[in-house]
Amino acid sequence: MEENYKLLSTVLKELQKAGVLKHLILAGSWCQYFYRIVFNASPEIPLLRTTDIDLLIPNPPKIRVHVDVPYILASLGFDAHFDYKTGLIKYVHPDLEIQFLTPALGRGKDAPYSIKQLGINAEGLRYLTLLQNYCFEIKHEGITLWLPEPEAFVLQKILASQERSDSIKKEKDLGSAQTIGELCLQSRQRCARLKDIFNSLPQTWQKKIIKTAQKISPELYQFLNQRI
Predict the structure, then answer these.
(1) What's the CA gap between 139 and 154, in Å, rounded?
(2) How far is the first Cα of the chain from the last one, in angstroms, to the nearest whole number?
(3) Alpha helices, H only, the chain
(4) Cβ contacts of residue 142 below 8 Å, gap of 6+?
(5) Is 218 helix (H, G, I), strand (E, B) or coil?
(6) pTM > 0.85
(7) How many angstroms separate the Cα of 102 from the Cα of each of 90, 125, 143, 159?
(8) Inter-residue contact 21 to 12 (CB < 8 Å)
(9) CA-to-CA distance for 141 and 123, rounded, in angstroms?
(10) How far apart are alpha carbons 210 and 12 in whole angstroms?
């Protein structure tokens, strides 16, 4: 994992140097690497073994710079892999794979979202507005990075799991939601934040979260269910 992190750190520093990183939010499983810092190296948060890096671009993007991100990644040993079925481009290195995501607004669309300022495209997915709307900055080893608030991460993972057709990825989503969610419940401040974010969501989303939380965590279910 440390070798993977070294490469990720290099990527983030190069994107920061180019003025791009401040427009991105780290999403997906690698958030947990930094949550271990936020939660004082809590042993409940597992060490990562995934090579997938998800970088979220807010929608609509508010990017004023024009940067050739594929060139930056190519200079670090990443190859662009084009998926002819979806039109998406991922950036693949022997140790890591980078994909760009963005919230799908309204009914969404089948084609990728073009981010012309960065020379990339992004996959539009539901529920990512949660991560976009509730995020914070963390500084670590010379990197200033946007992360989803842990409370938003929990709720988004529960919702996203219901969109998964891959049972292994679904299980990982729910495992992450359970672990981080139960850690949040140990803090009054985080409980209050979890309540605020949950109550801000549409009732249809709340009901989906409650239904799934009942299956994965009695503590999380009880906390959320009394606040509908």
Answers:
(1) 22
(2) 39
(3) 2-17, 31-38, 69-75, 129-133, 150-161, 167-184, 188-200, 203-216, 218-225
(4) 13
(5) helix
(6) yes
(7) 14, 6, 22, 16
(8) yes
(9) 29
(10) 35
Question: How many residues are present in the chain?
Answer: 228
Residues 136 and 148: their CA atoms lie apart, in Å, by: 6
Q: How many CB atoms lie within 10 A of CB 182?
A: 17
Which distant-in-sequence residues (6+ apart) come within 8 Å of 90 by Cβ? 80, 81, 83, 97, 98, 99
How many other C-beta atoms are found inside a 10 Å radius of the C-beta of residue 59?
Answer: 18
DSSP letter, residue 78: P
Summarize the confidence of residues 50-67 as an average pLDDT. 91
Q: What DSSP string runs through 16-54?
A: HHTT-GGG-EEESTTHHHHHHHHTTS-TTSPPP---EEE
- Residue by residue, DSSP assigns 97-110 as EEEEEEE--TT--S
Residue with tokens 């607004």: 105
- % residues pLDDT > 70 (the chain): 96
pLDDT tens for 91-138 read: 999 999 999 999 998 766 678 999 999 999 999 999 999 999 999 999
Token pair 């963390």 in the structure block, residue: 138
169 Cβ contact list (under 8 Å, min separation 6): none
41-134-91 Cα angle (round to 5) = 75
How many CB atoms within 10 Å of residue 39? Answer: 20
pLDDT tens digits, residue range 143-154?
999 999 999 999
